[in-house]
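In the lab's daily routine, each protein ends up as an entry in a very long ledger. A line of letters takes care of the sequence, but it says nothing directly about the fold. The three-dimensional part falls to structure tokens, numbers that each stand for a local backbone shape. The outcome of that step, for a single protein, is printed below.
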Amino acid sequence: MSDESEPTGATTDTGESATVASPSGVDALRARLPETRAEAEALLDRLVRENRFTIAVLFPLVGAVSLVGSAEGWVPDPLAFNPWFVLFGVLVMRSPLVVGVLPTIDRRAVGWLGVLIAYTYAIEAFGVATGWPYGSFEYTVSLGPMVGGVPAALPVFFIPLVMNAYLLCVLLLGPRASNGWLRLLTVIPAVVAMDVVLDPGAVALGFWSFGGGAFYGVPLSNYAGWVLSAAVAVVTLDRAFDLSGLRERLADCEFMLDDMVSFVILWGGINLWYGNLLPVAVAGAFGLGLVRSDRFDAALFNPLS
């Protein structure tokens, strides 16, 4: 009777048995990893695209409830305003923007983004120390490790805000976006408007305090400071990125502005809870801009799509 079971080894011409090793788990995992930048970008695109609802809708909804709950005393320590939970949530919501922009990043972009990161730390540290240009303020909730009185993760909060405004304006301007002065004069108000939504909500939560101010606890000088920082950011982004490449990526990548969708949901919801009606209206205006640019689509709000 013949044995038809699978052989566990092979016989060499010398009569010795040689075992054929099966690939290890590490080897199998390595084989599944992307080998080129294009493959890595395609993998990240797929991950974000398949999880749009979770990233851009569910995360900001949970974030708004947990932040308001922390401020109102509903969430117990150590979960209340836990800086690592906050940072994790922010990074997840930022992922569509990062993945969307990634194919347009080259050495020039890395260099200019480094300049913008350095400016971010420098102007914030100067502002904390002197009260200029944003007005006197202090952080009253931990946002993670601090460096010279400034959150180490500050670029994660600042740069995506200005990048989102920049991309939305490029998208809405269409062919007119090629005019550098028009870009500058459009993006600056958009960035300031985003801070009109952000700062009142953050002050209401107790993230930071200006010690009072005319606009929902925020001094008007803060917005003059944002005009300066927005201008620096626009000029830097203009030098960092090829505009035609950004526009092509915006046309092909439907989730590239999902971080702004998260912004509208998160900070619009927080301001609504605290009765900050003008910031809510501005958040709604950004929502309309996203609708006009076809970024509030059915796939985003249907978790089963």
About this structure: Residues 38-301 form one domain. The two ends are 56 Å apart (CA to CA).
